[in-house]
Task: structure prediction
Amino acid sequence: MQKLLLTDVRALLFASGVVLCEGATELGALGQWWKDGAAGFSDPGSANITMIDVGGDSSFGGYINYLEAFGIPWAVVADGPAIKPQSKLGKQLTNMRLAPATETPGDDGDFEASLA
Result:
């Protein structure tokens, strides 16, 4: 069973929404994008959105279950392997009926072709 840190739990309970990032790289990149004004807010805090590093591609489960239990909107930022149907996250999203009906774009290794 994954244990959530007390500070994480507290921040999540009072958030308008939560962005679950696979790791520090995604969290840092998303934070920079947000800081640059691309989201229309000066920072996630101004929108009462908490961004959190879940600690790896197999660590989303407890956070998602917690957020769902309290009705807090959430989103996931992860790379392709984390959301493949056979991954822990992929299986959880499938069980929740939130997984896409087909494989993710670019599963054949040609991401640019999948955009065409």
About this structure: The mean pLDDT is 78. The beta strands are 17-21, 49-53, 74-77.
